[in-house]
Amino acid sequence: MEIKFDNKKTHVYMGDAWDLTKKLLSGKDVIIISDINVNKLYGYSFPDYPVITIGTGEAVKELDTVKTIIKHLIAIGADRSSFLLGIGGGVVCDITGFVASVFMRGIDFGFISTTLLSQVDASIGGKNGVNVNGIKNIIGCIKQPSFVICDSGLLNTLPDEEYISGLGELVKHALIKDKELFRVIEDNISPVLKRMPDLLEELISKSIVIKIAVVERDEMELGERKLLNFGHTLGHAIESTTGLSHGISIASGMMAAVEISYNEGLINKKDVERIRSLFTNLGLLPEIKIRWPAIRDKIFSDKKRRGNNISFILLEKIGHGIQKEYLLEDILKKLHKQFS
Ligand SMILES: NC(=O)c1ccc[n+]([C@@H]2O[C@H](COP(=O)([O-])OP(=O)(O)OC[C@H]3O[C@@H](n4cnc5c(N)ncnc54)[C@H](O)[C@@H]3O)[C@@H](O)[C@H]2O)c1
């Protein structure tokens, strides 16, 4: 699949990661960035280039890691012709894209995406960045990779919790843009949870197509791309205050936004219940104990806030998200009500 932007094209490939990398990297001066888990599982298949290995988890997505990687790049002798290949999930991709965007004012990069969440979402669209003091993605930029490789075979080793987390972003794309995709997931809960290969490929590629279409029309998130933040205002706050996975956190954020949509006279009760049962059946709605003051503070630091206003995504119906501007105070009241 090809994504066209004003100044660049990105290619998204589905298939055997190691065959594809051989073709795509030929003649390039490559440096790999991966995490310890992925390196342990797949390092023996990595193409033969220097590897910089980072730790795992959201806590690693901080400026200290960026600094460590840049010191390694200098030590290796990387220059403007170097190519950074991130092999890993959303954390590796977000950090690799950020380092590549700032190292020597920007060098080329690409991803082999190894989690469901990064294949359906994080590696596509050019958003990269890191957290500061636990505030999600508070620094970063939009810069497109040269390519993204999504090899569903790599997902066989993914722990269940991480796989389920990826389903959160997959369902998000269905909810905001594609009622038919929602129905396919709804009708195939057991095969989805069993990671049936053909179905998984179909779901990943449909999800990528949705994301590509939105990002192509609005690379800089001036309008339509904001829909992809559905569930993320509360979701990011839950993720950084509870340590729960990204997908589970944003599923709770989406469910709260669906309830608000219902209270605002948008989505109907039947759709609300379909969404709740899909999340529940996929294991995306565990009982979460939240500390409201901490959540409130995180929402206040959310980068979607503009002064006293915040852009918030609601659903008119399954497959149709809309963006609305709210006073921050109003959205905080509405969200707080969901937890009282
Ligand atoms: N840039 C974007 O547009 C965007 C969109 C959504 C999410 N994100 C970001 O993505 C991050 C979450 O990404 P994630 O869920 O992929 O988490 P992750 O990168 O932390 O990976 C989750 C875990 O799975 C392990 N892992 C990775 N691939 C594996 C494999 N094939 N087999 C076994 N284990 C494997 C990792 O080592 C890690 O422990 C968050 O920081 C989130 O903010 C970014």
Overview of the molecule:
This protein is an alpha/beta fold and 340 residues long. It has 2 domains: 2-155, Rossmann fold (3-Layer(aba) Sandwich); 160-338, Dehydroquinate synthase-like - alpha domain (Dehydroquinate synthase-like, alpha domain, Up-down Bundle), CATH 1.20.1090. It is 49% helix and 21% strand. The chain has a 7-stranded mixed beta sheet, sandwiched between helices. The chain has a 3-stranded antiparallel beta sheet with strand order 10-11-12. Strands 7-8 form a two-stranded antiparallel sheet. A hairpin with a 2-residue loop joins strand 7 (127-132) and strand 8 (135-142). Helix 5 runs parallel beside helix 6. It is globular, with a radius of gyration of 19 Å. The protein starts with a strand and ends with a helix. The relative contact order is 0.11. The mean pLDDT is 95. The structure holds nicotinamide-adenine-dinucleotide (NAD). Residues 35, 37-38, 41, 56-58, 61, 88-92, 94, 114-115, 117-118, 121-122, 125, 127-128, 136-137, 154, 157-158, 162, 165, 246 line the site of nicotinamide-adenine-dinucleotide.
Based on the model shown, name its key terms.
340 residues, Rossmann fold, Dehydroquinate synthase-like, alpha domain, 2 domains, 3-stranded antiparallel beta sheet, 14 helices, binds nicotinamide-adenine-dinucleotide
Topology:
Elements: E1 2-4, E2 9-14, H1 17-25, E3 29-35, H2 36-42, E4 51-54, H3 63-76, E5 82-88, H4 90-102, E6 108-113, H5 116-122, E7 127-132, E8 135-142, E9 147-150, H6 160-177, H7 179-187, H8 189-193, H9 197-217, H10 232-242, H11 246-263, H12 269-281, H13 292-300, E10 305-306, E11 309-317, E12 320-327, H14 328-338
